[in-house]
Amino acid sequence: MSYCKQEGKDRIIFVTKEDHETPSNAELIADDPNDPYEEQGLILPNGDINWNCPCLGGMASGPCGSQFKDAFSCFHYSKEEVKGSECIDYFRNMQECMQKYPELYPQEEDKESSSQAESDPGSASVASTEGSALSPETDAAPSTSNLSSDSVSPTDSQAAS
């Protein structure tokens, strides 16, 4: 005999072998393509843009949502030979809006530089010395003050003697 057990928010159903032998009477309902809560993808069956698609990453909402929708709609419905070529002003408006909110819309180079700085904290000091001119002492001979005895090759020690 099967039975149920409640544990907090979970309901555990124990079934017997006999319960599994009888065919299921569950009815499957076909997906409704007009269901607004059903995940449709970026383009709806009627050709419209699904602004609720998770693939847009929330770009259709937020402070620059209307500019994004204008630019994306223009591109999507473009009939020009070079698709979207008439949409440059819309994309420029969107970009200008996004530049007002760098914390919400970081630039690609901002992402790369922040991820490099996080992964290599010494990179900032290396970058600051790369463009500097070397002093005459460092041009003439490499400094050995930072070298350990095991990092010196036999030819280095022969040349020093």
TrEMBL record:
Residues 102-161 are annotated as: Disordered. GO terms for molecular function: protein-disulfide reductase activity. Residues 64-100 form the CHCH domain. Residues 141-161 have a biased composition (Polar residues). This is Coiled-coil-helix-coiled-coil-helix domain containing 4a. The keyword Oxidoreductase applies. Keywords: Disulfide bond, Mitochondrion, Oxidoreductase, Protein transport, Redox-active center, Translocation, Transport. One of its GO terms (biological process) is protein import into mitochondrial intermembrane space. The lineage of its organism: Eukaryota, Metazoa, Chordata, Craniata, Vertebrata. The keyword Protein transport applies. Its main location: mitochondrion. Gene3D superfamilies: 1.10.287.2900. It is found in: Mitochondrion intermembrane space. GO terms for cellular component: mitochondrial intermembrane space.
